[in-house]
Amino acid sequence: MRWLSRLLSHAAAAGRTSAVARSTSIHVSGGSHGFASGGWEGSPAVPREWLRKLWREELRKQKEAARALGAFARSYESVEAAGAATEAPSRSYQYDDRDLDPVEAKLAPLLARANLVIARDIEWANIMLAFEQESRYIIMDPLFPQSPVGFIREKSNIIFRQLLRTRRPFVAEITDAMGNEIFKVRRPFWLINSSIYAEVDGKEIGVVHKRWHLWRRIYDLYLGNRQFAVVENPGFWNWTFSLVDEDDKLLAQIDRNWRGIGFELFTDAGQYAVRFGDEGLSHKFALAADVEELHVARQLSLPERAVALALAISLDSDYFSRRGGWGLPFLIATE
Predict the structure, then answer these.
(1) Which InterPro entries match (predicted)?
(2) Which H or E run includes 182?
(3) 184-196 burial: b if 16+ Cβ within 10 Å, else e
(4) Does pTM top 0.70 for this prediction?
(5) pLDDT tens-place string over residues 141-169
(6) What domains lie within the chain, and their CATH numbers?
């Protein structure tokens, strides 16, 4: 019987050792890989191979979602580009930047518009004291009149301004709304017939020559050595200046707008509408909705438009600038 009791004691000890071993294995695996082995005593173990498959499937779904999002983004960008191309005429741009040479590319941000409005600032020293100031102009797009698209700033000698007045020589910088120079116009001193030159980066691209006539206002416009337009205004009562070609076909138009009795009688603050034609505009709004459509024989090139803008500055200096010094009458007229 003694041998039987020893056998039973050995069997019990072996059972306790096996149970301790199983418990230790569960706790150790739960501590190092708790999620993979259940994480607590008695919980079912999760196969690692199944977790790897689940992770690979999740990665695959994420990649498919990323590819789908990229395809959507490309589709959205193409729709936006098509919309931009469709709405380009409403922004009044009439030229494709990809087809322009360096001179045209510099002129395009300002002059590739169907219409421009040029308004001269009030010169208070000229009004009150007859002190001639440098002329300042604001350039606006009638489609977006809330903010200017450019400026014109005269640079001239203070003594020449007082002595020579409208015959003074000057240089005017035409800039964009940020003050970056686009091109310049240069107007030398003159006695009988005035001339004004358009220059880009110091290189002359065109010129406007005035022809003397007793009552008519005649200007010849040149691009290089080639004349591309002429203006023959019938007289002082007419404020519309039409640019026509050699076949008398309309190319562009400059209108001097009436700004009210106070402005016209006592100031030089004129306003000009430079119209290059409305081809390519699907619809008009803002101030442009009130402007009658202008149909032209052909679109002026960007350098030709720069010369036309120089003509507007010359017209203002030749015919619509006057000596100031009105003082009190202006204040009464504007009240």
Answers:
(1) Scramblase (IPR005552), Tubby-like_C (IPR025659)
(2) strand 181-187
(3) bbbbeebeeebbb
(4) no
(5) 988 888 899 999 999 999 999 899 889 99
(6) 106-319 (3.20.90)
